[in-house]
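your task:
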Amino acid sequence: MNRKLNPFHELYVTESIGADSFVKLFSDVLVSHTEALFKPGNVVLKGLPGTGKSMMLSLLKPSIRIAYKRCGKIFPVPEKFNNFIGAGINLIKSSVSDFGQRPIVSTEGNDLNELAVYFGDFLNYWVVKDILNSIVELGKELKEEISIDLSEHKLDLFTSLLIKDDVWFGYLDEVKTFSDLTNRLKNRIVTYRSYLNYNIDNIPDNIISSKTAIGIPISVTAKYLREAGIIGDKTHIFIRIDQYEELAWLDESISGLGEKYKSVIHKLLAMRDISVSYRIGTRPFAWSEEQQVIHGTSARLEPLRNYNAISIDQVLRRPENIKTYIFPDFAEDIFKKRLKESNYYSGKGSKSLIKDVFGTGLDAKEKALKYVKNSRERVIELDKSWPEPWKQFLINLAQYDPLSARLGEAWARQDGKQSVVNSVPISKPYPWEEKTYWKKERVEQALIQIASRNRQQLIWEGKDDIINLSGGNILAFLSLCQQIWEVWMRDSKNVDETNSLPKLDEVIQTLGILEASVKWYENISNEKGGGNRKLFVTYLGNKFYRTLTQDLKMSYPGQNGFSLVQSQLKKYKFIDKFLKEASDYGDFQERSHTTKSQSGENRIKWYLNPILSPKFKIPAIHTKEPMYVTLVEFQQWMLEANVLPEELIIPVTKKIKTTKKTKQNPHQGTIDFNE
C-alpha cells in the first residue's frame, strides 16, 4: 500500500524546480496584469512572500524560455513583448549577504561609501557575465526568434570593442577572445567570493585599482552587443535584481550598510539608461519611498520618473465592493496544476476543481444547526423584562432555526426595534429577515456568538471560506491546502494504491484550516520585529473576539478591524511606522478609505490577515466599516499589548473633541496633539 502524496508539500515549488517542471506548474493568470515587466523601463515588483514575484521574474530567465520551446508550449509573454534578453542576479543565491559577513577593509577602515563601491563592482561583473551567458544560451536555441548572431567574427568584434573601453580601468587588457572575456569576468567574481568566505586574506591589487562605477559596465556591454550585431537594435535587455529585501538584513551586521547598498541599486534606476531596463523584486517592507537615496548624491528616486511600481498584493487582493477579481482564477489554475502534477487529476472535466474537492460550503443556517447540536437553549439569552409570548417565540424558533432566533434576539435589543416584543410575528419573513443588509452584516457575528455560547469551534470549509481566508495571497492559499491535505492523509483509511481525487468533509477542512492559521500566527515572530507585532496581533485578535461575542445587541458588527484618521497618524511616527511594517510584513491588511461622516476626512483602516481569523475565531470577511478610534485610544491598545514604550506616549494638549455619533460612524472622534 502506498501513502498518498501531498501536492502542496512544497509551498515555493516554482522557485526550486527545474525549468521543465516550471512550465507545467506556472500559472499565466498574472501575466496580463504585470505586462510592464516585459516593456522597456524600470519596474519595481513588490509582493509578500509567495505572492508570485520570483515566479514572474523567472519568465525573464533564458532557461525558462527555452523550456517552453522544448515542451512545445507557447511562451506566456505576448509575442509583441517577447523580443528581449533576460539576465540578472538573485541577491540571496549570489551570496551578496557575505558583503556583511566580512566587510572589505581598506587602510581607511570600514568606510561605507568605499564598501558600496566594491558592492557595485561585484554587481556589475555578475550582471555582465550573466548577460553574456544568457545570450549564448538563447543563441543556441532561439536565435531566430530573438535575432541573436553568435558568429565568431561578431563575437571577436564585440570583445575587442568592450575590452578597449576605459570603464574597466585596464582589468580586461589581457583578454584576447570571447572565451577569455567570460573567464576573466568569472574569475573576478570568484575572487570576491573567496575573500568574503575567508579563503584568501586580501583583495588583490588589480581589483582594488580597477573598481567600476555601478551600471556603467552594464550599459557599455549592451551598447557593444548592438554595435557588433550580436543582438538587434530592437532587442531589449532586462536585468533582474531579485530578493532586494536581502539588503535590509545587512544593517544588523554594520549599521547603515544595507541602506548604503540599496542606494547603489537605486543609482541603477536613476540612470534611466535606454540600453537596459531593470526589474527589482522585493518584499514591501524593504522598498520605502522615504529611503530611496541615490548613491553619491542627496537626491532620491522618483516614482513614475525613475521606475514604475507593481504591487502583486494589490493586483490579487479583492477590491472593495467588487465581486469579481483575479485571485480565485489564479488559485484555481495553480490548484489544478498541482493536482495534475501529483496524478490526482487528469486535467479534464471540471470547471472548478477547488469546489469539487472542498465543496460549496455549508450555508449560515446549516452551520448554526451544527453549532447547537442538542443544546439549543444556549442559542439565545432572554431578557427578564420581555413578555412571555416573545420569549416563547424565540425558544421555539431556536429549535429549528437557531440563526434566525439569535438575530431576532439582537433585533429586540436594539434601540427603536423593541416593539417587536409586544407584537410577536406570526409568519415569515420576520422583520430582521426582511432587512437584507441588516441581516447580511450580522450573520457572521451571530454565528460566532452561537458557537461561543455552545462552546463549539467555528466551522471553516468550502471554496468560499478558503478563498476568503487566503486574502489574495497564494502562499496563504497553498498553506491552507497543505494543512487540510495533511489532516486528510493522517487518517489511516486514506492510504491506498490510487491517487483518486478526494472529497474532504467539514471536519477535515476545519482541522486543517485551524492548523494552517496557528502555524501562520506562530511564524509572525520569525521576521524582524515580529515579536512585538505578534504581541499586538494577539491583543487585537482577542479584543475583537471579546467585543464581537459580548455585543448582545450586535449594534456594530464591524468590530474586527479599526480605522484611524490619516492626518492624525502622520503626527506620530512610531505608530505610523509600526502599522506600516505590520502591513508590509503581511500581519495586517490596510486600505485607504473616506469616512461616511460629514467631515469627509481621509482615513486608513486595518484588518488582521484573514488567515489569522480561525486562530482568533473572528470573521474573515468585512461587511461593515471597522471601529473608528482616536490615536489616544489606539496608543492605549499598544500600551496594554506591551508594544509601546511609556516614554513615547502621545502628549495631549487639548481635550478630545468628539463629533456627533451616527449609526454609520458610532466611534467618530478627533483629537489635537503637540506637533
